[in-house]
Amino acid sequence: MWEYTDTVREHFLHPRNAGVLEDANVIGEAGSLACGDALKLMLKVNAEGLIEDAKFQTFGCASAIASSSALTELIKGKYMDEAAKLTNKEIADYLGGLPKEKMHCSVMGEEALEDAIRRWKGLPPKKHDEEGRLVCRCFGVTDLQIIKVAQENGLTTADEVTNFIKAGGACGACKDDIQGILDKLNSVEKPMVEIKPVPRMTNVQRMQKVMTILSQDIAPRLALDGGSIELIDVDGTTVVVALRGACSGCHASQLTLKNLVEKTLREQVDPAINVVEA
User: Which pTM does this prediction carry?
Assistant: First the structure.
């Protein structure tokens, strides 16, 4: 049972500004139903940038609803540039604090507001490939998102990051990567260890690893759009593939080869890999 403050209970049981804002002219969204929490923030902003009204729709737990309610109360009556300075910590503080495992709910509020502000300024929604290197594939979290939340909230451990933005909370494969980012950010000195030369990968080993990555990682992602991929040959660091299905002849096939296939193989197999189409 989570230990909630009276303010959290009040905003959960009697949320402020819940529902649809019919005359909203700015909308921001964060989270996703697939991840368990989602927030739609609706704002009515006048020509001077003043937030005249705000409402929300939230799918999530008591903390998510309370955080969304607090968010709308904090930004109503403020100018957008002023509201842009709001942090998840201020949302949590307004509620008298949140359980550490629920801090991601306040972060979702901050992200929905950021999305609304971008749309108000005429900017497109942020994309992961514009936000840095993808670290947590389960929740789509990048290294820059981890750095941002860590700096704003003084986080030092991977478990703390999980509490704030869920990264590492599913399969856990990225926990070490997250901790490495935090250690570098906080300049944590590691004990000296013996550095051993990395043995060169043989062509057979490289081919086996490429086949594994193609079948277990890349192919399932292409299949979502009706496509597939076939490994033709591996010659040193040159990987020859053929795109099949919906990917064959697609006008974006070269982007798929470079931004998905080659990038993934360079990250997980060998940074010198060059992918070409048969």
Answer: 0.59
Out of 35, 61, 138, 250, the active site residue is 35
pLDDT at 35: 66
For residue 206, the tally of other CB atoms under 10 A from its CB is 20
Torsion of CA 215, 220, 124, 162, to 10 degrees: -90
pLDDT range class, residue 194, cuts 50, 70, 90? low
- 105 flagged as catalytic: yes
**178 with 205: CB under 8 angstroms?**
no
- Antiparallel, parallel or unpaired: β 274-277 and 238-245: parallel
What b/e string do you get for 235-257 counting C-beta neighbours within 10 Å, with b at 16 or more?
A: eebebebebeeebeeeeeeeebb
CA distance 165 to 186: 19
pLDDT tens column, 101-117: 899 999 999 999 999 99
Which one of the listed residues 61, 105, 171, 250 is annotated catalytic?
A: 105
Question: Is 138 a known active-site residue?
Answer: no
The 10s digit of each residue's pLDDT in 25-52 is 999 999 876 667 899 999 999 999 999 9
